[in-house]
């Protein structure tokens, strides 16, 4: 089992500081890291080595807690303890901070893009979750008759074709469209469903909340209870039908979505799906589980733990979908010299895993699924 997770390399990403979080760009070619040094670093490969391509140092005044790439890969969002979220625009190898989102009263703990790329979620120590909407990139125009080209008069009175293109400022504007106050304590993490505009949040109040849009506002549509202490992180499976949560109670819980009138007879409230815990992974971790990542390519679950270890779980063959079982397939006891804060699967290369730690390092690993699983 120990040979199923092989070290490829390490980089001193944030020397003399914690490295808090990692995020791969959608193409899997760049990795963003952030830390207590207030900086974001962008990593890429040259041959077999990982090198720092860019350092983003001007956006925040305090620790950068999390980063997230937009689905198009052209923007990077960063959440900071200075109570702001910065939006960085990629221009070749350079990044420019084009927008700073303000409004949270305390540290912003997490940020995440919706799959459409037009919505952004943030959460904070102020117990709230905010949903932000990007400026519209289109303009709807109606004219008569509708089957003829639209033309307008130019300055000299001639009729010319009409074109509309949003300005750069319009593209980079974001508006808060909802403030959600469903949690009673610090909100640690937000994550979007992989294909729907369904948002999940994890909190110090030991719960997970799910939200959806309703009549131009956002509402809490489900509360998942079961953890006995802080819920630190969340991850959807590739289908979006299951959600994994990890906690200070040293367990991982797998929740399954049940639609109304489901064959299993799970009760639902109105038209909203119900979420039920179908599996609990306990006894594997000796300290707080800070992060969990569900590989969209292989289905492997990786955890980052306060005992300095990385673990990988794989669902067993012929596992019952209603009561799934998972096996521990990799356990690296000293993956880092201090707490492991984050694990992140590469979205394009199966088995490529990155991790970061309080030791300031980023490590790259190759996971090989054991035979028979």
From TrEMBL:
Keywords: Chromosome partition, Repeat, WD repeat. GO terms for biological process: chromosome segregation; iron-sulfur cluster assembly; protein maturation. InterPro entries: CIAO1/Cia1, WD40/YVTN_repeat-like_dom_sf, WD40_repeat_dom_sf, WD40_rpt. GO terms for cellular component: cytosolic [4Fe-4S] assembly targeting complex; MMXD complex. WD repeats lie at residues 22-43, 57-89, 101-133, 180-211, 224-255, 333-373. Pfam families: WD40. SMART domains: WD40. HAMAP family: ciao1. Belongs to the WD repeat CIA1 family. Component of the CIA complex. Component of the MMXD complex, which includes CIAO1, ERCC2, FAM96B, MMS19 and SLC25A5. Interacts with WT1. Interacts with FAM96A. Key component of the cytosolic iron-sulfur protein assembly (CIA) complex, a multiprotein complex that mediates the incorporation of iron-sulfur cluster into extramitochondrial Fe/S proteins. Seems to specifically modulate the transactivation activity of WT1. As part of the mitotic spindle-associated MMXD complex it may play a role in chromosome segregation. This is Probable cytosolic iron-sulfur protein assembly protein CIAO1.
């Amino acid at each position: 089992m120990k040979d199923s997770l092989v070290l490829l390399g390490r980089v001193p990403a944030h020397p003399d500081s914690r490295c808090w979080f990692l995020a791969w760009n959608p193409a899997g070619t760049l990795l963003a890291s952030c830390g207590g040094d207030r900086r974001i670093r962008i990593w890429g490969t040259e041959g077999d080595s990982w090198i720092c391509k860019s350092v983003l140092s001007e956006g925040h005044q305090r620790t950068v807690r999390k980063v997230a790439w937009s689905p198009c890969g052209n923007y990077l969002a960063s959440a900071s303890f200075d109570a702001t979220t910065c939006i960085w625009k990629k221009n070749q190898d350079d990044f420019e901070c084009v927008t700073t989102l303000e409004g949270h009263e305390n540290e912003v703990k997490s940020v995440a893009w919706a799959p459409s790329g037009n919505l952004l979620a943030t959460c904070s120590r102020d117990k709230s979750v905010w949903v932000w909407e990007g400026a519209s990139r289109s303009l709807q125009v109606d004219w008569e008759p509708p089957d003829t080209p639209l033309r307008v008069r130019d300055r000299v009175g001639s009729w010319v074709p009409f074109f509309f293109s949003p300005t750069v400022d319009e593209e980079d504007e974001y508006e808060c469209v909802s403030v959600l106050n469903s949690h009673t304590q610090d909100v640690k993490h937000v994550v979007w469903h992989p294909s729907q505009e369904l948002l999940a949040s994890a909190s110090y109040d030991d719960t997970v909340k799910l939200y959806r849009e309703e009549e131009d506002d956002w509402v809490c549509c489900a509360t998942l209870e079961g953890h006995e202490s802080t819920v630190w992180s969340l991850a959807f499976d590739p289908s979006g039908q299951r959600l994994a949560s990890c906690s200070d109670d040293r367990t991982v819980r797998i929740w399954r979505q049940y639609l109304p009138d489901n064959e299993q007879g799970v009760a639902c409230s109105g038209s909203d799906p119900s979420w039920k815990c179908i599996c609990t992974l306990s006894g594997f971790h000796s300290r707080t589980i800070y992060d969990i990542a569900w590989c969209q390519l292989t289905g492997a679950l990786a955890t980052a733990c306060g005992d300095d270890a990385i673990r990988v779980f794989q669902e067993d063959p012929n596992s019952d979908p209603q009561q799934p079982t998972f096996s521990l397939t990799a356990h690296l006891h000293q993956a880092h010299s201090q707490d492991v804060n984050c694990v992140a699967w590469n979205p394009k290369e199966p088995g490529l895993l990155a991790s970061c730690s309080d030791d300031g390092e980023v490590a790259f690993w190759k996971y090989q699924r054991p035979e028979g699983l």
